[in-house]
Structure formats: structure tokens, C-alpha cells
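Quick question: what would this complex look like in 3D?
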Amino acid sequence: MPEPYASYGSNTDAPQTAARPAGSTGAAIRLEHLTKIYPGNPAPAVDDVSMEIKAGETVVFVGPSGCGKSTTLKMINRLIEPTSGRIRIGDEDVTAIDPVGLRRKVGYAIQASGLFPHMTVAQNIALVPRMTGWSKARTRARVEEMLDLVGLDPGEFHHRYPRQLSGGQQQRVGVARALAADPPVLLMDEPFGAVDPITRDHLQDELIRLQHELHKTIVFVTHDFDEAIKLGDRIAVLRERSHIAQFDTPEAILTNPADDFVSGFVGAGAALKRLNLTRVRDVEVVDFPTAQLDDPLQSIFDLLRDGPTNEVLLLDRHRRPYKWLRRGDLSRAKQSLARAGTLVTDTVTRDATLRDALEAVLTDSAGRVPVTGRRGEFLGVVDMETLMNNVHELLEADRLEALEHQHELRALGAHRTQLAQEGLDGAGGPEGGAGGRA
Amino acid sequence: MSFWEYVGSRHAQLLTDTFQHASAVFQCMVIATVLGVVLAVATYRSEWAGALATMTTATILTIPSLAMIGLLIPVVGLGVAPTVVALTLYGLLPVVRNAIVGLRGVDPALVDAAKGIGMSRTARLFRVELPLAWPPILTGIRVATQMLMGIAAIAAFASGPGLGNEIFRGIASLGSANALNQVLSGTLGIVVLALLFDAAYVLIGRLTIPRGIRA
């Protein structure tokens, strides 16, 4: 019997997910022909969804409202019982086990946090550990640990009630509660839908940081494609009845959308969005002549005269970028370093996205921006040329990879047709296939 | 004899009556609360069952209290029994109605969250739904208690306990020296009791409603 999920498996060698460390605490999730039909409605709300989510991977379901993405998510912890199909988490078939026990092993975070208003932050977080039979002392230690993990000071927030927190803080506590009993799988149903854009951005960064530490298997539902690109290792673009239009890495979806539906969802500016997926650390920064503030004036003069450019970057005592100094600036400022040059207004860190870097480069009058390390120390410079070259390389690499996937799929399709003709696989795979790009 | 002289001379009897009145209302309220909440929990999830429970208890409330106690005498006899039955029945409506409204008013997202993190049906009810519905339930209990304070006076009609005895004795001997004093002392006693109970409920509210959902 041929493997019916091979079409999804074709993406498994995507570099981003392959780079996950072996010590992952996540568990693989496998949905097999999940269907949900509500009584009184002949059309299924979710129609024959099959997919495989690898351990430690973040998969984002994205699609228009009412496409069944939330329903599909809720079938994983059986808040909605599937009409047919099977769910496996790790090696276990959870389709028929006690749903209460299952849900204690699957973290669940929802929109507007879902915190219980009559319980304190600590009580909310302690719920699942206590229900699973942890001792009081262990639970207490865990609550502190979780608050720390989501960036809230345990001493300050422990005894607060949810209504005494801002929306963003509530959402953090919601995530802490979902993770408290250390479940291998975390389901998130539009968790950041109800917070303002700035807070949402912070929370997304936070989730990325958390996931770097924890390596859970996260299934995340959103209708915001930009959020999907930012968070997902892989994205499942769903159309109505939860049919998978495309299930692939964000890079592949951006550079090679499967069809008009997906490209409509990706929206305009795919190349710009692509910049969000690469960080400054992944591109080459160029070196730039620098001088220290307390260097003798003569050596700075020499550097300006003999250096490769007619400009140096002055660093302060902690090697942080301080001023741009051009040839001639010094003489105009009557040899006083304090008055010469232009202050550095913008820097980017190695963790900034290329989009942030581009923004900074575009606003800088000379089209370059210093890159700084963890303590703000100077590491190099990104300029327009570096960015352009890198983006071209990235897009080219994406395109090649997408083409490769396409070839694999075609080969697979041909193999299947052959099998079908030989009468070995009459049923065939799920309709269309997830990554089925024509 | 002035009113205060009357109260002074009969204070032992008055205190006994007051205590019995308070005790009857309190005990009936406890039974009505338990029954009412159980009834609400059993019916709130079904549209028609909830409506049926509210309607039945509302119908009971429309029966005049004098008639209710009179009708109960042939069934349960005289004394404490008809008082307890009548008071409990009258106390049900506010509790049932507020409990149903309170339980139905719990944000479905919270129930969903409770389910999603693995709470069993019972845990959901006792740790999420009932605590969140508690403020309206307590209001229902408070309203019911105020009502029962007055209705309990009628219990004396069936030889029941309480301050109603003072009032009935006064009315029966209207025109005699102490008739007015008797009616007045019974009535004032009930008013004072009602105020004391109300104060107690405010205190109970402060103690039992978590700060996170206190208005």
C-alpha cells in the first residue's frame, strides 16, 4: 500500500525544520481523513483533511473566516468530535481516548486569553498541573517558572487578577497556563487576535523566542497571513471546508503560490514579505573603517585620508556606534571631535529582519546602517548593495527549491498514476494533494 | 402601657419569637438555595427546561401566602411543617431564576477554555461556572430572604413559629390595651431582622466573591 501522505512529506526536508535540534519535546501530530459534518447541514464543515505535523514544528493554519480552520484545530484536542477520521499524537491514536485526559496533555490558548476572571494569575496557571496531580510545591515552583518564561515578574503578577492586567499581559498568562503542565503539543486559536498591533508584534516575537527554547509542536490558527509568515515553519493555506490549498514553508508559498487562491491570500508585496523571513545574522555584513572616540586626532585623519572610504564610524568607549565622520568634517568643526560629524540615529541588531534593515537603510541619508551585537557593540554595516544582492540570492534559492518540490510532486503523481493503472491503488490520495501545484 | 414598656415587659417572649423567625427563614433559605441551584444546574443548558423551571417557581410565587399555608395544613398538618414547606417554595423562584441567568451568562469562551485545558464536566461546573454565577445567585438569595421575612409572619396562621404570632395575637384582640403594641413589635422585629440579614449578605458577598469579579 503506498503511503497516502507522501504528498505532504515532500516538504519534510525543508531546511528550516530540518535544523531543529534532536532534543525536541514536541510530538508529531497526524490527521487522517478528518471530516466534520454538523447535524442538519449536509455539507461538511471540514472535509477529509489529512496532514502530518512534525514534532517540534510550528504549523500555521491560515485561511478566510469560516473556512473551517478553527474547527480543524479543535478536532485535534477533540473540543469538536470528528465525524470520521483519526487523530494521532506521537504514537498514540487519540481519536477514542478519554477527551479530558487528552486535553490535559495538549496545551490550549485562545483569543482574549480565556483566563478565569475569578482566579488569580497564579491560580490560573496552576490549574492543569494541579489537575494532573502535581504536588503543591512543584506546582508553585512551576508557576514562578512559567511567569518568568513569558516575561512577567512572578513577585508582581502572582496575586493579580486577570482584569488587573493589560491585554498583552493576559495573553502571556494564557500562554503560560497552556504550557504549565509541559504538554508536547500547543494549540493556539487566533491567540493574538484581540490585542493591538504593537502588542501583537511583541507577543509574536515572544512566541518565537519561547519556541526556540521549548521546541513544542505548535498548531496556530490565524486569518492574518503576515502573522503566519512570521511564526510558521510551515503554513497550511486553507480554503472552504478546510481543503488544503497549499502546505509548505513560508518561503515556498511566497515565491511559488500553488494557485490563484493562495496568491490572492499572500497578497501584494510577496518579495517584501520575504524580507521578513531572513534576519540580518543570515546575510553578510560589510566591514567599515572605525575609530574610537579617544583615539588621537592624527590617527583619525590618517584613516580618513588613506582608508578605503572617505568616511569613518566613530565608536564610543563601549564600542557602540556613535558618529559618522566624513573627510572635511573635522576641519569644518575646527578640529573638535565633539562638534564634528553626524550622530548615528539608527542601528539594527543581528536579530532584526531584513525588512527592518531595509527600512533603516532607506531612511538613512547615506544608505547604510550599523549592525550591533547584544550589548550594542559595532559588528559591521548593512548597505543597499548588500541587501539587493542578498535578496536576489534568496529569491533565486527559493525558486530553485520550489521547482525541486514541483518535480518531486510530479514524479510522485506519475508514480501514483502508474500504480492506479496497474490497479494497485484505486483509491488514490486525497483530492488535489496539498502541495499540488499544477 | 407605652410601646417601650410593652417591649420591656415581654422581651423574653419577643426574643424567642425573633430567634425562631430568623431561624425559620435562615433554614428555609438554605434548603431553597440548595434546591434552587440544583434545579438551575439541571435545567440551564436546555432552553425549554430552564423556562419550565422558571415558570413553575414563578407560578408558585403567585399563590397567596395565606392560601398556600391554608392548603398545606390538610397535607402536612399544623406547626413547623407547613411553614418550612411554604417558605422553601416561595424562596425558590429568585434563586432558580438568578442561578439560571448567572450560569447562562458565563462567557462561552471561558467554558470553551475550561474544556480545552482538560477540566471534567464536574470541575467545570464547580470551579468555573458556579463561581462565576455566584454574584447573581447571591443576589437571588438576598431578594428571596427579604421576601421570606414578610411571608414567614403568615406562618403563625398555621401555628407556626416566629414574630407572626405577635402580629396575629394583636389583630385578634384589636381594641384591647396591648393590641397595637403587639402588632407593632412583631412588625418592627421583622423589619430589624430583615435589615440585619441584608447586612449579613453584604458581608458574605465581600467574603465569597473573589476580587477578580467583584463589581
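Answer marked as accepted. The mean pLDDT of chain A is 80.
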